[in-house]
Structures are given as C-alpha cells and as structure tokens.
Amino acid sequence: MLRQIFPPINVLPSLSRLMKNAIGSTREDHAYVSAQLYACYAMGRDVRAMKREERRDGSIRLQAVVGEDALGQDDLTLLEFLEKFEKTFVNQVEMMIKGVDEKRTINESLDLAWSLLRMMPRTMLKRIPEAMLDEYYKRKSMVPLPPLK
Questions:
Q1: What is the pLDDT of residues 44-59, one digit of tens each?
Q2: Cβ(78)–Cβ(62) under 8 Å?
C-alpha cells in the first residue's frame, strides 16, 4: 500500500484532501489536472493489484492473476505512469537523502503533473476539457521525467 514512499502516506486519500483547499486560487487547470492525476493513479493501482500483492512489510509477492503478457498497452502505460507518479510527484526520499527540502510551487507541480499526463494517450484523459487539452497537452514537457530503474 505505501510502496516505500517517503514520507509514508496513502496517496489517494491524501491527494483529495490536500487539493480541495487550494483549488480556485491557482491556475485554471488545477482542478482538472488533479482529478485526472487521481483517476490515472487509481486505475494504475488497479492494474498493479492484478499483477502483484504488496505486504505490510514492503515486500511484494507476485500473483498469478494476470501475467504481464495479458496486459494491454493502456494497462502498461498506466503502470509506467503509476511508477513515475510515485517516484517524481509524491516520493521525497531522494531529496531527503540529499538534505534538500523540496519547495515546489503550485505552478511547478502543475507543470510536473502535465509531464506525467502526457505519458497517457490523449483519449484516456477524460476529466480535462478539450480546450484545456488543446492548450496544455501538446506543450513541450517543461519538467523532464527520469527513467525508471
């Protein structure tokens, strides 16, 4: 459940609780991007749950429910999104190891969110209005995403 995220949090409830206080006083895309991140993350967790079981001690046991070969391209994209979202958007371990307190602005967070959402086919981004997709989806990524290890 916690996937070695630091600080250790359960991402889905935390996202909805944190964003509700800021929406309306930030960029026009905030509410839509937040809703889409939440949806993609939830779908990615569903796909991951078909593949493996996470134990409380952080270890992972592969399940035989669905093999990777049985997953479609959208499922594989969701898994990649999930890993990069946890690593780049939520996890603060690397910054803590370096002794740096990351102070990302809301605009930097939204730009990072768009970089993550661009991983998804546009047709899967159903929570963002078309006009907003026209404005933000095609932009060159302002925040490069690191490769997964």
A1: 998 888 776 555 565 5
A2: no
